[in-house]
Amino acid sequence: MDNIILTSLYRSPCGDLVLGSFGDRLCLCNWAAELHPGRIFRRLHARLGATFEEAPTPVTRAAAIQLDEYFARRRKVFDVPLLFAGTEFQERVWHTLSGIPYGSTLSYAALAARMGMPRAVRAVAGANGANALSLFVPCHRVIGADGSLTGYGGGAYAKNFLLELERE
Known about the structure:
The chain has helices at residues 39-48, 58-71, 88-97, 108-114, 121-129, 155-167; strands at 4-12, 15-22, 25-31, 51-54, 106-107, 142-143.
């Protein structure tokens, strides 16, 4: 049987997202116009040995419904089953990111310290940037130590939009 990631487009108020499922789990929620085009897709292809086909699935439909609720301010926590496809270190960072509450932010240094690795700020920032599950794993909640909106795959506009959405 072929390994296939089935994808569909989700139009959010701050940019289009590509949702993807592998089996019965969401493995992709990435910006269609991303900061580093193709990087996430190449990594998923390599880690899962999968190709991509466009076709909605029950998982991507559920993800789209939950995103609709999030953008309507009716959902603060997602419960779609997720599939992390990264190194052990990346997956540890993504699990830690998942613990940042709605409406909160954390610096890269604070995230590294929370993981018990205060000297690994750059490695933590790199793993944060490799997150293939934007919004579901809230990497937009990580900011610079000075409060600045540092790099984000969806761009500064999307990051600011999401943080403002969660503040109101």
